[in-house]
Automatic annotation (TrEMBL):
Species annotation: Candidatus Pullilachnospira stercoravium
Protein's name according to its UniProt entry: Helix-turn-helix domain-containing protein
Pfam families named among the record's database cross-references: AraC_binding, HTH_18
Residue ranges of every copy of the HTH araC/xylS-type domain listed in the record: 196-294
Keyword Transcription regulation: yes
Length: 334
């Protein structure tokens, strides 16, 4: 199983590819190494995470949780979320199990999907549920997550059926969480779709000059509403997010290509090598050239993660904020 946070068009919707596309299930099991911050993204699959080391801060648009060793979490389909290491990133061991509705239902639109899977995916008020190991009532659910990880690692005859049976039992609990949320999610769903539209637009145009007005038009909202949604949903501004996205893409190019520093600066919207170097050093604590060298000297283990573009993000530390009037373009050099 591998994942990409940015597709060829720059979309921040995460694409998950399984070893077997017929199963619609995958285990992301990174092993030892540096665990990077994972920026805002979403995917259609349901996600079940379990920590066997370290601590992670999970953020959704409206909630925030710190998970430690022995804790788990459920992330609903289509939910915007981000992950931030707490403490030493090298101590984190996160094991995430993903599956689409087809994994439990068999096929979209059948009775199992309509009655049990779709109601959870469509419950926008249900973003994420932390499952803390310190609460005795959670022991059975967490044991189920551990068994799922073990089954996926071991494979063998019938492991697919055992996995499906296991998560069918766990799903009764997840379905109960969705029912408890009631009808509170309708308005939230509309706001989620607007912010996703604006993030997707930034993903397609990050190499160009852009203004907040242009970002707002992608979701058919006013400039003021655009700022409100970014602050409410992501805790940042459109300018800060755009700058962080450009830096994310620049890191990917440094790791995956032999393009010159200047070419990367131009392609990602920083415009000049000197400006790019200044912003990169402020964010990463090193020059782009040194970052590339260290990454290659470590044979890719500087960020030991199959999700190569998931590198460290510091959203509010390196981006130029809007001025008080809010006028002008997103920081960009040409």
């Amino acid at each position: 199983m591998y994942m990409e946070s940015v597709d060829e068009s720059g979309n921040v919707k995460e694409k998950i590819s399984y070893k077997s596309q017929m199963l619609h299930y995958g285990l992301y099991d990174p092993g030892e190494g540096y665990f990077p911050e994972i920026p805002w993204h979403w995917h259609e699959e349901f996600e079940f995470g379990y920590l066997t080391g370290g601590a992670i801060r999970y953020k959704t648009a409206r909630e925030e949780f710190i998970l430690r060793e022995g804790d788990g979490i459920f992330i609903n389909s289509g939910v915007l979320h981000a992950l931030h290491p707490e403490g030493n990133p090298e101590s984190i061991r996160l094991h995430s199990q993903f599956f689409g509705r087809e994994f439990l239902a068999g096929a979209l639109g059948n009775i199992f999907d309509i009655r049990y899977l779709a109601p959870v995916a469509e419950q926008k008020a249900l973003e994420a549920v932390p499952v803390y190991g310190s609460i005795s009532e959670n022991m059975e659910f967490l044991e189920g997550l551990r068994r799922g990880i073990a089954l996926s690692r071991e494979g063998g005859p019938f492991f697919e059926m055992r996995l499906r049976s296991l998560f069918s039992q766990l799903w009764e609990t997840v379905y109960g969480w969705a029912r408890e949320k009631g009808e509170a999610g309708a308005r939230r769903g509309a706001e989620d779709e607007r912010i996703k539209a604006m993030l997707a637009w930034i993903g397609e145009h990050y190499g160009e000059k852009m203004t907040v007005e242009e970002i707002a038009r992608a979701a058919h909202v006013s400039r003021r509403e655009c700022h409100r949604l970014f602050r409410k949903e992501l805790g940042t501004t459109p300018a800060e997010y755009a700058a962080s996205f450009r830096l994310q893409r620049a890191r990917e190019l440094l790791m995956k290509t032999d393009q010159s520093i200047l070419d990367i600066a131009v392609e990602t919207g920083f415009g000049t090598g000197s400006y790019f170097g200044k912003i990169f050093r402020k964010s990463q604590g090193m020059t782009p050239k040194k970052f590339r060298r260290l990454y290659r000297e470590s044979a890719g283990n500087l960020y030991k993660n199959p999700l190569e573009i998931r590198t460290g993000q510091r959203y509010n530390s390196f981006c130029k904020k809007d001025n008080s009037s809010g006028r002008g373009a997103i920081p960009h050099r040409r």
